[in-house]
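Late entry, written up from scratch paper. The run itself happened at the end of the previous shift, but nothing got recorded in the book at the time, so transcribing now.
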Amino acid sequence: MLLARELGKIYAAIDQSVALALSHAEHKPVCQKGCEHCCRQPIPLSQPEAFALFEYVRFALAPEIKAKLLQNYLSQQDAQAPGAPCPLLLNGSCQAYQLRPIACRRFMVGRMACGEHEDPAATRPEDLIIPARSALNDCLLGLSGIYEKHYRLFGMAQAPEFRSPVERIAWIKTNTAIIQAYNWQSFFEVRRKD
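Output as recorded:
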């Protein structure tokens, strides 16, 4: 699980920026296990994050968890549609919490819990607890290094070339997808060699 190890450094930096934001927040976060409203929003992630999650699901999740995730995934009318729940959500809990994407790590709501189908960024942005943008940018720069190092893994003919940090960050932002847009079925299917 090579990408998970490399992303671990990036995630640790994000988590540190989150802890700092929480220490200065006017309201404490109401987000907790079982609160899954944000897991039903479109969740952006980079290819390295997606690949690390695929590896984790395929090689680290217990077969019975994969079977339940597959059942949930297949029962969705359109599991890849915007507004569909995150494919890693099971009984109100993220099954890959330690590898959750940057977007999930940074999204925190204070004061009161979200309503069903609420997007607090639109309805009450003052309740969002937002870590420093500089920490996010540092992490995006780290992601660009992963793309450069493992470009073939992501189907690229050559490593991306960047002239500036701003260009790197912009490239990462334009090369993200929504977690629900990936086809997770083959990763949830239990194979004998898994």
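The chain has one domain: 2-188.
(Scratch paper discarded after transcription.)
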